[in-house]
Write a structure and sequence with these properties.
Order of helices and strands: HEEEHEEEHHHEEEEHHH
CATH architecture of the largest domain: Alpha-Beta Complex
Number of domains: 2
Number of strands: 10
Protein name: Aminoglycoside phosphotransferase domain-containing protein
Strand order of the largest sheet: 1-2-3-5-4
Pfam family, one: APH
InterPro entries: AGP_Transferase, Aminoglycoside_PTrfase, Kinase-like_dom_sf
Largest sheet: 5 strands, antiparallel
Helix content: 25-40%
Domain Aminoglycoside phosphotransferase: 18-249
């Protein structure tokens, strides 16, 4: 437990009062009220076992927020502390956005909000980088190098945690990945729990899993365990080509491989969820041939 005095030292806020915010699946998340206003304080889990891509996630989220908050409803960075002087963890302080997560809600116009989400996603993808991959792990000159390396990493993680994955034949589609020449900022975790709304879209949160890559990868999380709908694509302003759909299946397989593997370090024993992930993974791999 991080006490109020330590929070004050870390965040540089005056007389902070913290309460836990639910919904965080990796970091500890606090809502902090201080003399300066209301903020979100995120504290990383330190050195607990995790997947390869989860190293230094907080630093990626700080970068994501810094870049994306200029053009999209994303929290602004107020303060970071990666020194680990006060606690053995990275700390990020951001503005608190209005609204509550879309997950499980029936009191909103979901069609309208998903249309707004698609449009916000298109705007997010106007942010371009200089190379491909996870910012915190080192970038690559081509998307095929970056993405195949990402898949290799989760394969190694699965072996480390004794998780059996099906063969994910991304290497045979290298030329399709090489068609992506422009790295854009991809959130990659825009499921309903990370989408805030009141009567309209108010925020995109938890960007720690962001990377520089193919914008088509963004269409996985808003449609977990199914395929992205035509209405979303229309609002985004695109139609998927055959090549896009193959790459999309590869990104689905990658995410479901992550979700299956992370069950072990997170001590998740939900057998129904494991079956659902496994079925989705097998279906995505089937598209890849």
């Amino acid at each position: 437990m991080v006490d109020t005095e330590v929070i004050e030292q870390i965040t540089q806020l005056t007389a902070p009062k913290a309460t836990a915010l639910g919904g965080g699946t990796y970091n500890r998340v606090l809502r902090v009220t201080a003399a300066e206003g209301e903020f979100v304080v995120k504290i990383s889990p330190g050195e607990q076992p995790g997947l390869t891509y989860e190293r230094d996630l907080m630093r990626t989220e700080a970068l994501f927020c810094t870049l994306a908050s200029k053009i999209a409803p994303v929290p602004e960075v107020e303060h970071t502390d990666f020194s680990r002087r006060h606690v053995d963890a990275d700390v990020l302080v951001t503005t608190l956005l209005p609204g509550t997560p879309l997950a499980g809600r029936s009191d909103v116009d979901r069609t309208s909000i998903r249309r707004q989400l698609a449009q916000a996603t298109r705007t997010l993808h106007t942010v371009e980088g200089e190379a491909f991959g996870y910012p915190q792990l080192g970038l690559h000159d081509t998307w095929s190098q970056a993405f195949i390396g990402m898949v290799d990493a989760v394969r190694a993680d699965a072996e480390r945690f004794n998780v059996t994955l099906p063969n994910i034949p991304v290497e045979q589609h290298k030329t399709l990945f090489d068609e992506i020449r422009k790295p854009v900022l991809v959130h990659f975790d825009l499921w309903d729990g990370n989408v805030l709304a009141d009567h309209a879209l108010t925020g995109l949160i938890d960007g720690e899993r962001a990377f520089w890559g193919d914008p088509v990868a963004e269409f996985v999380s808003p449609a977990l365990f199914t395929d992205i709908d035509d209405e979303f694509l229309t609002a985004y302003g695109t139609e998927l080509t055959d090549a896009d759909r193959v790459r999309l299946a590869a990104y689905q397989a990658y995410l479901y491989a992550i979700m299956l593997t992370e069950q072990v370090p997170r001590n998740n024993t939900d057998e129904r969820l494991t079956r659902l992930i496994t079925q989705a993974l097998v279906a995505a791999v089937g598209v890849l041939g």
